[in-house]
Structure formats: C-alpha cells, structure tokens
Amino acid sequence: MDEPVPHAYRNLLDDEEIEALLEISARPERRPVVLLVDDEPQVLAAMRGLIESAGLQCLTARSSAQALRRIGRDESAIDLLVTDLRMEGEGAGLALIRQLDAQGTFLPIIVLSGSPRARDLVEAMRLNVLDFLLKPVEPEEFLRTLKRCL
Known about the structure:
Elements: H1 7-12, H2 15-25, E1 33-37, H3 41-53, E2 57-61, H4 64-74, E3 80-84, H5 93-103, E4 109-113, H6 118-126, E5 129-134, H7 139-149
Parallel strand pairs: 1-2, 1-3, 3-4, 4-5
Helix pairs in contact: 4-5
C-alpha cells in the first residue's frame, strides 16, 4: 500500500480492508478535454484525430456561435480551447475570444490560422491566448503545444 491511509483507519481495519477501501474510493483519472473550433469539416476531423491520438478527449464546434453554446453548457469540463482565427458564417475565432473575455470566461486558448494578420495576432495575445500556430499545423508541434498548455 503506497497511498497514505489516515491513522484512524489503521486502528479499525486490517491491511486487506484498507486496500479494498482505497480501491473503491479511488477516482478514475480524467482525460483532459479540448474544444476544437473550425469551420472546415476536414480540418475538424483531422485535428480531432490528432487530439484523440494523444489520449485527450475532443469536443468540436463548426462556428463561434456553436462554441459559445457548448462552453455555456460545458465550461467546467473544458480544459483548453483551440480555435481557428478566421471562420466563415457565424463569426470568427477572434470574435469568439473577445466574447469569452467580455463574459469573464477564462479558458486557456490556442489560436490556429492559415493567413494571420499582425493586428489580429496582437489583439489575440492581449486576450490571454497562450499560443498561436500556423496552418497547416505540424502534428508534433501541435501535440507539444497541447501538452504544454494543458
């Protein structure tokens, strides 16, 4: 038995009973959860596979609006947000980051972009973005960045 056992239990239980108690009270290890936001289905699928291959759980959203709904519902379960900076449709990644900041929602964030503008990068970094990666993302670099940010 490598785990510490309160002294009071040592007086009441034998070693076998203590070991059984530790087994049933042990919490299963929780896999970190990454919310991935991108408007391109092929990118979502490829990045999701990469994230899951690292033993992480991955939730996806195809727009900033969908991501906001998901964060509103599951914020406490999400450990990291990875978002494209520029998306079509219901809003860009930068708008998502601004809205999270305005709401007081703090999530560690990694930004991805294929064609970044310096002004957008500077603003994103001011909004507590942890890192920025260029698309197409190198898998090894992406996985190192995920592990560092989690």
